[in-house]
């Protein structure tokens, strides 16, 4: 059904979009994901989202305890349309909810912090699904996020300052991890064909008019042909 539905959707979008969806979905991953905690500067939030899109990270988890995650469209450059955003703001302890949700999905939690001699982004284990959690601009991750982490991870630095800007930290981390994944052959880390199909259907829904009605009609036609 899903492949037939995607084929039908492809007939009503431009060939250019079809080519992009096929090419980009093939490079997407859920093996690595990113979570940000309580960012208050919208240019940083938007830059992290754009970085996720550029490096093929499909899911961004957003913890909003005190600060709402606002997107600057000039910086995000449309990334919000293609990256799936998951917000955690309605609970008393949104950090706990986010991290527990990720753990339930099988992710190891990597807390990014300069104040540890544990792993670096060059040697943190990546054989299992991993979620990198980045903290707020001034104080970093909360104690709760650090307490729930499986790994502590830092970016090697040789200057006087002890940390990068949050958006730079995310870019360096994701780039390094993506490069490491590209050079390993022990496990699959990109989306499966079925996952790619479902993602491309979702992307189609985001650019067509009346997507729910259109898909309902297409499904009915497919079922009628199969009857």
From TrEMBL:
Family to which this protein belongs: Belongs to the class IV-like SAM-binding methyltransferase superfamily. RNA methyltransferase TrmH family.
Signal sequence segment: none
Underlying gene: trmH
Reaction equations catalysed: guanosine(18) in tRNA + S-adenosyl-L-methionine = 2'-O-methylguanosine(18) in tRNA + S-adenosyl-L-homocysteine + H(+)
Residue ranges annotated for the tRNA/rRNA methyltransferase SpoU type domain, each copy included: 32-173
GO terms (BP aspect): tRNA guanine ribose methylation
Keyword annotations from UniProtKB, A to Z: Methyltransferase, RNA-binding, S-adenosyl-L-methionine, Transferase, tRNA processing, tRNA-binding
GO molecular function terms listed in the Swiss-Prot or TrEMBL record: tRNA (guanine(18)-2'-O)-methyltransferase activity; tRNA binding
Protein name: tRNA (guanosine(18)-2'-O)-methyltransferase
Entry keyword annotation includes tRNA processing: yes
Residues at which S-adenosyl-L-methionine binds: 112, 155
Record InterPro entries: Alpha/beta_knot_MTases (IPR029028), SpoU_MeTrfase (IPR001537), TrmH (IPR033671), tRNA_m1G_MTases_N (IPR029026)
UniProt function note: Catalyzes the 2'-O methylation of guanosine at position 18 in tRNA.
EC number: 2.1.1.34
EC category name: transferase
Source organism of this protein record: Brumimicrobium salinarum
Keyword Acetylation: no
